[in-house]
Design a protein that fits this description.
The chain has 484 residues and is an alpha+beta fold. It contains 14 helices and 18 strands.
Length: 484
């Protein structure tokens, strides 16, 4: 096993801000060759020719041999030493089949051939050390059987990555010439929510003319929703808990369906497991699912397990599947989640949290004391409030644009004479696990989801543009301008 070390060595100068270079060297098993203290050559490192081969073959660094030789020079490191031998690093120790003492006699300087990655001269183009360390970290993860990085190099990797969390501000600063509202596209959410949130903060800061519009971008790989979900949950908790705001940190860029770690998502996951176990998910048989994911849904008694995999672990397992199977399972999961949320909304039990209500006018109709604290005298009141708000009604012209945008149909009910726009919407599942396609009927004041077969057998019929405009406009004109 080879262990890649690295550290920054400043130049010998007295300036307050010192220049210097970053050096790499490779540790390997101790050589059988004996060195004397006077030589001070580390017996377990790759010398110049071996180091060049490692840099080319394992790290992919491309330079001619002349430049390599110019960049490689001996450096001296004070290392713990016992019996005139440097102790191996903790990373290498676990691969050695020898017993090592926990104590050492002294620190001794050892000569090691090192590769200079950053050259502090103006005539030579310096390597981007932040990018280089990131590439080395990536290669070490996927080539762990060939080499690993040491704790000293790992420290510099994390240290340089922290530089990416500081930088420019792109918000609509009140002192800037361009104060237009920013559009922030989140191309790669990444594995960590805190890093993504730190990035969003570049365009959303204090002293701004307006808040930005966040636009998360994903591909057709549905597993990417796993990362968007984490960011949505983190943003919501960040805004609601740390700033004590009524609106959460999601700022409206995520919907309830984007949070895949809610109670509704847990119910949807249980329903997904139940459909797979009962054979109601024909495209994913139970045996295939258990084989691909490594998850067992069957108990020792032959029934379905009660204690199943938590949602987060399931989503991570899902990312390991091939894209086709991943999309297939995730699509079923999303439909079940939408069905759970829709049912909760229809039953009036959907928890939306603390809301900020807006209206044209609020009037207190009744006030009742619910509780009075015996110690402080603080009173909790129950208020019955009348809210008068302006009716949000779309014109016929707006609906024509709407139907074109969502590839819908213009409909009129032959029995009631009402107008509506029919657009595709998510399906739901019947008791046998079959998919029931539906459409969304958009009316002037409400929306209704209807199964396609019921719509076709109903009195709703597709009409021409002129007929729709006439019926819709007449219905809108008769509606009140305000509602209570």
């Amino acid at each position: 096993m080879r262990i890649l070390h690295g550290t920054w060595i400043p130049n010998e100068e007295t300036d307050f801000i010192q220049s210097g270079s970053f050096y790499l060297w490779v540790e390997t098993q101790l050589s059988q060759k004996s060195y004397t203290n006077s030589q001070q050559i580390h017996p377990g490192h790759l010398v110049e020719s071996q180091l060049i081969a490692f840099l080319v073959e394992e790290l992919g660094i491309k330079e001619d041999n002349t430049k390599f030789s110019q960049r490689i020079s001996p450096k001296y490191f004070a290392l713990p030493t016992t019996n005139n031998q440097p102790l191996p690093s903790p990373e290498l120790t676990k691969y050695l089949e020898i017993e090592l003492t926990d104590s050492y006699e002294e620190f001794q300087y050892w000569q090691i051939d090192c590769y200079e990655t950053v050259v502090s001269t103006k005539n030579v183009t310096a390597l981007n050390i932040i990018k280089l360390l990131k590439d080395i970290h990536f290669l070490a993860i996927y080539n762990a059987e060939k080499f690993q990085i040491s704790s000293d190099l790992l420290f510099w990797y994390h240290y340089t990555q922290s530089f990416k969390r500081t930088g420019r501000s792109y918000h609509a600063d009140l002192n800037a010439v361009n104060r237009k509202r920013r559009s922030h596209y989140l191309l790669e959410a990444g594995w960590r929510a805190d890093n993504a949130i730190q990035g969003l903060g570049r365009s959303h800061r204090t002293n701004q003319a307006s808040a930005p519009i966040f636009r998360p971008v994903t591909t057709n790989v549905t597993g990417e929703r796993r990362f968007i979900s984490t960011i949505a949950r983190r943003l919501d908790s960040l805004g609601a808990l740390t700033r004590e705001q009524r609106q959460t940190g999601g700022n409206g860029i995520f919907s309830n369906k984007d949070n895949l770690e809610s109670n509704y998502a847990e119910y949807a996951l249980y329903e997904l497991f139940k459909q797979i176990f009962q054979g109601r998910f024909a495209q994913v048989p139970l045996g295939t699912f258990e084989l691909l994911t490594g998850l067992s849904l069957t108990s020792h008694e032959g029934g379905m397990k009660i204690d199943l995999l938590p949602l987060r672990q399931f989503l991570n397992r899902l990312l390991a599947l091939r894209i086709g199977m991943q999309n297939l399972i995730f699509e079923r999961f999303e439909l079940l989640l939408s069905q759970q949320i829709e049912t909760a909304v229809a039953n009036g039990i959907f928890e939306v949290g603390v809301e900020t209500l807006r209206a044209e006018r609020f009037t207190i109709e009744n006030q009742e004391v619910v509780y009075t604290h015996p110690g402080t005298g603080s009173v909790t009141n129950y208020l019955k409030i009348e809210r008068i708000q302006k009716t949000n009604i779309k014109t016929a012209t707006e609906m024509l644009e709407f139907v074109t945008q969502y590839h819908g149909q213009l409909m009129v009910n032959e029995k009631s004479g009402n107008a509506a726009v029919s657009i595709p919407t998510h399906s739901f599942f019947d008791g046998d696990g079959g998919v029931v396609p539906r459409v969304l009927l958009v009316r002037p004041q409400k929306e209704t989801r209807v199964p396609v077969d019921k719509l076709e057998s109903s009195t709703w019929k597709e009409v021409s543009t002129s007929s729709f405009v006439t019926v819709w406009s007449k219905e809108v004109d008769e509606l009140p301008k305000f509602t209570t």
